[in-house]
Amino acid sequence: MADDEPLDDMAVVPPVSAPDEDVMSPAPEDTDGAPEAGEEAQDPGVGPDVPLEGCKESDQREEDERGYGELRRVHQLVNNNFYGGVDASGAAFGFGAAPSVGLAPGTIEPEEADRALRFYYPPQPCFDEALCKLSTDALVVLTGEDHCGRGASSLALIREVLGKEARLRSLSPANALAELAGSRDLKPGQGYVILDYVGELHVESVQAYAIGRLSEELRRKGSYLVITAGGTTRRRLALRDHCVPWRAPDPVELFEHCREQLPHPSLEPDTEKELLERVGEQRRPTDVVAAAVVLSREGAQKALDNLRDTHQELVQELFRKQPSAADLIPLAALAFLEGIPERTFEKECAALTTHIHNWEQSGETPVAERGDEAAGTLRGAVDQQSRARWRERAVGLVTAEHRAEPDRSAGRSERRLVFTTPRVRELLIKELHDLYGYELWYPLRQWLGELALLGDLATRTQVARGVALLARHALVEVDENMLKVWSDGLASQRVTAALTLQFMCDDEHLAPQALNIALSWTDNSGQGRAVTAAMALTGRLGSLYRLDALKLLWFLTQRGERIAFAAHRSMVLLLQTSEQETERALIILRFMRTVIARTAPGSRERSIALRTAVQLLEAARLETPEALTSALLRNVPDSARHLGSLWADVLHSGNRSRAVSALCRTLVQLRDDPSVTGAVHELGEAMCNAMSGRQWAALRRHLSIALKHPDYALPGAHQLAQVLLGSLRGRLLTDPRGAASPLMPTPHFTPAQGGRSK
Question: CB atoms < 10 A from the CB of 513, how many?
Fold first, then answer.
């Protein structure tokens, strides 16, 4: 999928006139009121979010610092493929996992749609009914169970009415339908999809007349919109008349349809019969298509092995035997603590046993959804835990491996319990949710809450992953009993909540829910939850919903001091984690350019935008002290143009000293790399084109003075500075008045401090 829509179409802030050309003057401050270099550059602290007690504010800031420190460590581990090694499903927590077509908002290229629809088989009669509604109203809502093929069907319907070459665009599930009709997002003759729409924060914002207006606007422009949503959307009066209940196509018919398009071997009658029987049991079209592809590539036996799903059979057989408490409790604990050191796991498993024992001794009558027999398996004393017992407890499901901590040598490895495949963990949590009730989940929730508060980072990361898997089956319970509590707690709890939302994005149907939860935390839910939302947007959630994350973080920078500080840190972390993703890095830089261009000179918003920009320019790379800007110039084509514009804007402000210092660090760290000469020249061109002759001459003097500082007076730095300044193109090299002194006092340059204001 192409990147997000052009930022020119985004109403980030109201457009204003072009910034004043010659702001860079001898005055100690510019019109935005930013402090001169050397002063404490604090984030704005205006508004109702600012706490009254100074000591409390200091404690909160310390808590938030600790939380962001942990998030940074998690992102560093992800970049080192740590979680990919511990748990293959965890590799998706990095930002390289490709989302399903249309899940990430943006343009859907024709070849992407072709791949998604290669084996598409329209289910009847719902396809024809939806096509009729779409043709008549230009709007239809496909409702039904997850994994029934709604997403692919939305693309197929759009192509049916607009043709194979139709321009397709996926809109964010956070879009307000009531506002969409009047926005500039709707273009003539274009197809739009909103996948897994979850509703809006304010239900009253979507009324029948607003939906009617949207339908009318779509028809007027010759455009079409298909929305996919869960079955509960059918009960919303505003959308009820536009809904079509969806179901998956017949699995055997779909399988035969796929076989017609693939080369496949001849099959023995018995093998074919079993294969079709297994296919008929499947409920997800993607599983049926996968079986047909495996049959074509690897033969019937491999296809049967996949369809039999031996891991599911093992997990179900385990629970059919009604495991005793001695076996059940460790398995339940492992579902949320996979891959941590075994000694730590045993300690936490004993804590869960204590929670269950205390619950049994409390005198409460447990609600046993599975009956008295299941409740009885949890009563009584728990056997002494034995490491040898794992050989009998979960044969084929759990294994022990020796692995080192990511920052230790192999000689310091220790034993860890892990599932044989990531799917086992998912199946185990599903069975626990389906078979056991309050008698297990009440003490289990207490235990998870304790881990979220007191566990170390590795433990809490695994808790977050397990809770995200639980959310696939019990989203309301997870949100109300865990996330809502943790998101307003201490730093450890808030980091756990933020990581849970990020892990929820590994499931395409949960990702919009995660975005909706993060948005709800910024809507009059208190400072703590707003900070947690900012934390959550630094990871997979912010990578998937790029513009939503950037717009929300920009909104949060204008809140009280604590929330604004968190938003700035999150913006920096977003850029730091995008170094290897060219499109995402460019969208962040373009976003900041757009924000600055649309804020009024001298306004509070302008000051906030410039401070955010300078923090991005000062940031270090995620894993090394090297300036992030040097890595972007080296690895991200076209970043020089955007960085040059940001540097020019910041140099026009009271943050100019920090900007010059960041520029020096960048040149120093690029001085030994001849391949970046062109990018540095392009950077200078972009800066020069955005500055007046007087401003450019001042930059030359300030840069020459700064490069005499011992930190920057290194061989090659001056030569690279000449490449940067060689972009002058005949402009005046000296001040027309012949002044030899700089236009501003020579600043004291300090080493970079990542994304923090100094």
Answer: 22
Q: Please report the DSSP string for 531-580 in residue order.
A: HHHHHHTTSHHHHHSHHHHHHHHHHHTTS-HHHHHHHHHHHHHHHHTTTT
- Phi/psi at 108 (5° precision): -100, 110
Whole-angstrom Cα distance, residue 232 to residue 228?
Answer: 11
Q: Are 679 and 722 in contact (CB under 8 A)?
A: no
Positive or negative, the Cα torsion across 32, 36, 37, 38?
negative
pLDDT at 377 over 50: no
Which has the higher per-residue pLDDT, 216 or 96?
216
- Using alpha carbons, select from 105, 219, 226 the residue that is nearest to residue 160: 226
User: Is the pLDDT confidence value at 158 over 50?
Assistant: yes
* Size of the chain in residues: 758
Strands (E) located in 232-347:
243-245
How many Å apart are CA 445 and CA 491, to the nearest integer?
19
Q: How far is 538 from 567, CA to CA, in rounded Å?
A: 10
Among residues 129, 173, 171, 123, which one has the least CA distance to residue 149?
123
Q: Residue 566 in contact with residue 498, Cβ under 8 Å?
A: no
Which helix or strand (DSSP H or E) is residue 108 part of?
Answer: strand 106-108
Six-digit token string for 636: 């991200």
d(CA 49, CA 182): 32
Closest to 649 measured CA to CA, from 682, 606, 619, 683: 606
Residue 396: partners with Cβ closer than 8 Å, 6 or more residues away: 310, 311, 314, 420
551 contacts 12 by C-beta, under 8 angstroms: yes
Mean pLDDT check: name the lowest of 63-72, 391-400, 649-658: 391-400
Closest-CA residue to 168 (of 197, 203, 192, 195): 192
Residue tagged 């910041």 (tokens)? 650
Assess whether the previous peptide bond of 330 is cis (omega < 30° from 0): no
Question: Amino acid identity, residue 284?
Answer: R
* pTM above threshold 0.85: no
* Cα–Cα distance list, 459 to 191, 195, 250, 338, 491 (Å): 45, 33, 43, 9, 15
What is the spatial distance between Cα 369 and Cα 437, in angstroms, rounded to a whole number? 5
Beta strands in 171-328 (DSSP E): 191-197, 224-229, 243-245
- Look at residue 635 and give its three-state secondary structure: helix
Radius of gyration of the CA atoms of the chain, in A: 29
pLDDT in tens, 650-660: 998 888 899 99
Measuring CA to CA, which residue among 478, 533, 479, 439 is closest to residue 336?
478
Contact 169, 192 (CB under 8 A): yes
Q: What is the pLDDT of residues 586-604, one digit of tens each?
A: 999 999 999 999 999 999 9
Contacts of 215 (CB under 8 A, 6+ apart): 137, 138, 139, 242
For residue 35, name the pLDDT band (cuts at 50, 70, 90): very low
DSSP 19: P
Q: List b or e across 167-197, with b for residues whose CB sees 16 or more CB atoms inside 10 angstroms.
A: bbbbbbbbbebbebbeeebbeeebbbbbbbb
State both tokens at 676. Answer: 């970046």
Band (267; pLDDT cuts 50, 70, 90)? confident
Q: Are 3 and 583 in contact (CB under 8 A)?
A: yes
Contact 247, 123 (CB under 8 A): yes
Q: Taking a C-beta distance cutoff of 8 angstroms, is the pair 229, 141 a contact?
A: yes
Residue 372, CB-side half-sphere exposure with 13 Å CA sphere: 0
Are 90 and 465 spatial neighbours (Cβ–Cβ below 8 Å)?
yes
In a 13 Å sphere around the CA of 136, the CA atoms on its Cβ side amount to: 9
How many Å apart are CA 659 and CA 691, to the nearest integer? Answer: 14
Q: Which run of H or of E encompasses 417?
A: strand 414-419
Q: Which two tokens stand for residue 160?
A: 């049916």
User: What 3-state class would DSSP assign to 226?
Assistant: strand
Here the tokens at position 112 are 């992407």
